[in-house]
Each structure stands twice: as structure tokens, then as C-alpha cells.
Amino acid sequence: MDVLTQYAWIAWLVLILVFATIEVFTLEMTFLMLALGSVAGLLSGLTGIPWWAQFIVAAVVAVALILTLRPSLLRMLRRGADPARSNVDALIGASGTVVRTVGPAGGQVRLENGDVWTARLSPVTEQADVAVGEHVLVTGIDGATAVVVPMERSTQA
């Protein structure tokens, strides 16, 4: 057991490197907190305490950092995020033109960005077919289908 305590610093260094490497790829701050806990375990090991006490120190520090420091770091990290919507989120609220009659069962619309999407009527609107050439508003995306309402009905909903 004395050998385990004597060479525990190698295990702590390996853990610190592994956790730091994983953190670089995830950017969720969890593995950073685990790496900092491992640093505390390493420092406590250098003072000569047994390996099981080093583990307890590392675990307590890591949990304390995850509960206290991580939330504020995540807020700071996301504060400067790009406010522009992208991907599917950018399509919600987009207008389009019907290219194949849209009903409750489906149809097709060409959105303002030029994409042609399979579409169906939103369940919150009157379930009457929307003719080719009419304008629609995207209210949601369900898989690969745009959920739409006709423009003249969108103001009533």
C-alpha cells in the first residue's frame, strides 16, 4: 500500500491530462472541474497523506467546483453567443409559397430562402386545403416537414 501512496502522483498527472484533453473537445466545463479536483488530489498527495484521502480530497473539490464554479463559467461562456438563429430554428417564422396544394395530409412549399419543403397544415388552423401560389407562414418543423398556416389565417391564430 505504501507503494500506491508513493506513486499516486503519476496517476493524478495522467487524470489531469485526460480530463483536460476531454474538456478541450467538449467545452462543458465538467471535465475542467474534474481536472481541478485531480490537481487538489495531486497537491494533497504531495503532502504525504494516504491515497484514499487523496481521492476523497479530489472528489470533494471536484463536486464543490461543479456545483459552484461551473454554472457561472457556463453563463460567461454563453453570454457572447451569436443571437442569430440557425438551422431549423431560423425557418420558424419564415414565409413561403405553396408549390403543391397543402392540406392536413401534406403538400409542398417553397420557403423565402429558396428551399422546397414537404409541408402540412398546423393543427391549430382551419384544416382547409391551401392552393398553389398562396403564401404560408412556418410555425414549426416536425422532422423533415414544415408545419405551416396560411398567411391570411396566421393573423387570426
Summarize the structure.
The chain is of the alpha+beta class and 157 residues long. The chain has helices at residues 2-6, 8-26, 30-46, 51-79, 87-91, 151-154; strands spanning 95-100, 107-111, 116-121, 135-142, 145-150. The protein is rod-shaped and about 80 Å long.
Taking the sheet with the most strands, its summary is:
5 strands, mixed, barrel
Measured between the Cα atoms of the first and last residue, the distance is 72 Å
Q: State the helical fraction.
A: 40-55%
Shape: rod-shaped
Description:
This protein is α+β, with helices and mostly antiparallel strands and 157 residues long. The protein has six helices and five strands; from the N terminus they run H-H-H-H-H-E-E-E-E-E-H. It has helices at residues 2-6, 8-26, 30-46, 51-79, 87-91, 151-154, and strands spanning 95-100, 107-111, 116-121, 135-142, 145-150. Helix 2 runs antiparallel to helix 3 and helix 3 (30-46) runs antiparallel to helix 4 (51-79).
Q: What labels describe this entry?
A:
157 residues; alpha+beta; 5-stranded mixed beta barrel; 20% strand
